[in-house]
Design goal:
Elements (H helix, E strand, L loop, with lengths): L10 E2 L30 H15 L9 E4 L2 H12 L7 E5 L7 H6 L6 E4 L1 E2 L2 E2 L1 H18 L18 E5 L13 H13 L2 E6 L6 E3 L17 H7 L15 E6 L11 E4 L2 H8 L2 H6 L4 H12 L2 H28 L6 E2 L6 E3 L2 E5 L6 H12 L1 E2 L1 E2 L17 E5 L8 H18 L24
Parallel strand pairs: 1-15, 3-4, 3-7, 7-8, 8-10
Antiparallel strand pairs: 2-11, 5-6, 9-13, 10-11, 12-14, 14-17, 16-17
Helix pairs in contact: 1-9, 10-12, 11-12
Bound molecules: pyridoxal-5'-phosphate.
């Protein structure tokens, strides 16, 4: 099938990194800051972020005391779990699936190996009825087991232990690029309040957005498509600080400079209530070493203060990612949809993020397709099983889905990559091998991470 692998240059549509040409290298060659940071991070960066986030999300109340500087969304997720969960008392980690797979290990690191549960999505976002049902069952179980208080950790003046964690990417999700409706966002916040859940959202793609109309002149989109869950929690039904609430809130936003400046900066922020932001800053590693990434945080503060990074997002990143998306999408429409593949939420006016999620015809197994693409076409794609919550026993399996990334590869390889994939699918359909060689997903094999070098 096709030419031998080594005659073809590698095309990597798996790796979810920004292309090196999109890094603002000139902007960040500035500013030494070699001392320890305050626990909650560089003050100037917090001030600049408060202004930018107010401008972009237009919430009523972003203030520096709601922001804590982090080492990026991954480091910050680990930190939130350390401060606000306990592996016994915290009943479950609810993960909207398919999910950003590199988050799984952070839940495992914090003792939640057996407590991760997938929550499916529908057209509006998270399946709220499923979540409500499962939360109830989880609470009934906790009651039967007498799970009434934390065993290994205690609440301290700067923290509390939540009963549930919900992890989601509600806007331009990784991997599906779905965006939740407003109604669904409000329902989730209400449910989180009812069940003492903390909703952790990775809001890392919100600024990378553009029009799906490829014929229209691309306007700069300098306002968020949707409020974050943390904004909704701030305002809905009396807000997070309403009478009788403990003041920690039920949503926290994980922001990152990885996608809008460069992942090597290892700098991001959390935003939540003042108590939440302060709690994050009091994790032991920050109490001892100060907020992470102080050097780069100080550099980022400078380029926000001049407005250069904000302009870079609008003038360079939005049009570049729009062009990449449209190039790949045109190829998908021409070479994949006629073969029976389908898209999610295809009728949107604004889209964003890094990825296109496709469902294969049901007789084509994504693991077989990804492995054959790698060995025979020198083409890397993300197979659905990667995004499946480990240990979850529900129906949330993605054996017939794939994720393609348009951010990493050279732009002139996006079309040839999709063409190779189309040819391969056609030949799998023709010779009837599409589902026969089903293998265990490499990702499921505990301890092994054989393809991690590609992402
Ligand atoms: C949903 C999501 N969260 C977090 C990250 C990683 O963010 P950071 O580089 O800030 O740790 C990524 C990067 O791919 C992502 O897609």
């Amino acid at each position: 099938m096709g030419a031998p692998k080594d005659e073809k240059p590698l095309i990597n549509l798996l790796r979810g990194w920004p292309h090196p040409s999109l890094l603002p290298v000139e902007l960040v060659k500035r500013e030494p800051a070699l001392l320890y940071a305050p626990d909650d991070g560089d003050l100037k960066l917090r001030e600049e972020l408060a202004k930018w986030l107010t401008d972009f999300y237009q919430p009523s109340n972003v203030a520096i005391n709601r922001i804590c500087i982090t080492g990026g969304a991954s480091q910050s997720l680990g930190c939130i779990l350390q401060v606000f969960t306990e592996p016994v008392y915290t009943r479950n980690i609810w993960i909207v699936a398919p999910a950003y797979f590199l988050a799984f290990r952070m839940f495992q690191d914090n003792g939640f190996h057996d407590k991760m549960r997938a929550v499916p999505e529908d057209d509006e976002g998270i399946d709220i009825d499923f979540l409500r049902r499962e939360l109830r069952k989880s609470e009934e179980r906790a009651e039967r087991e007498g799970n009434n208080e934390p065993v290994h950790k205690r609440a301290r003046p700067w923290s509390k232990i939540y009963r549930h964690i919900l992890y989601a990417v509600p806007t331009f999700s990784n991997p599906t690029s779905k965006t939740w409706t407003m109604r669904r966002r409000e329902e989730v916040v209400r449910l989180a309040r009812e069940f003492d859940a903390l909703v952790i959202t990775d809001d890392v793609y919100d600024m990378l957005q553009w029009s799906t109309d490829r014929t229209a002149k691309q306007a700069q989109l300098d306002k968020a498509l949707m409020p974050r869950l943390v904004d909704i929690d701030s305002n809905l039904d009396g807000g997070a600080l309403r009478d009788g609430a403990d003041g920690f809130g039920n949503a926290v936003s994980n922001g990152s400079f990885s996608k809008i400046a460069g992942p090597g900066l290892r700098t991001g922020w959390v935003e939540g209530t003042e108590k939440m932001a302060w709690g994050c800053s009091q994790v032991g590693t920050s109490r001892s070493g100060g907020a992470p990434s102080q050097f780069t945080a100080a550099a980022v503060a400078e380029i926000l203060a001049t407005g250069e990074l904000q302009s870079y997002v609008l003038d360079v990143l939005q049009p570049s990612y729009a062009a990449r998306y449209h190039t790949m999408m045109t190829a998908v429409e021409e070479h994949l949809l006629p073969l029976g593949l389908t898209l999610v939420q295809s009728d949107r006016e604004v889209i964003g993020g890094y990825f296109i999620w496709l469902t294969l015809p049901s007789h084509i197994d994504a693991a077989v397709l990804a492995e054959t693409a790698r060995t025979e076409e020198n083409l890397l794609i993300g197979e659905g099983a990667l995004f499946q919550v480990p240990g979850d026993t529900s129906d949330a399996v993605f054996a017939h889905s794939i994720r393609l990334c348009f951010a990493w590869e050279d732009v002139d390889k996006l079309l040839p990559g999709v063409e190779r994939l189309g040819r391969l699918i056609q030949s799998l359909i023709k010779d009837g091998t599409a589902g026969k060689m089903r293998q265990q997903s490499e990702h499921d094999q505990e301890g092994k991470d054989p393809i991690s070098r590609y992402w």
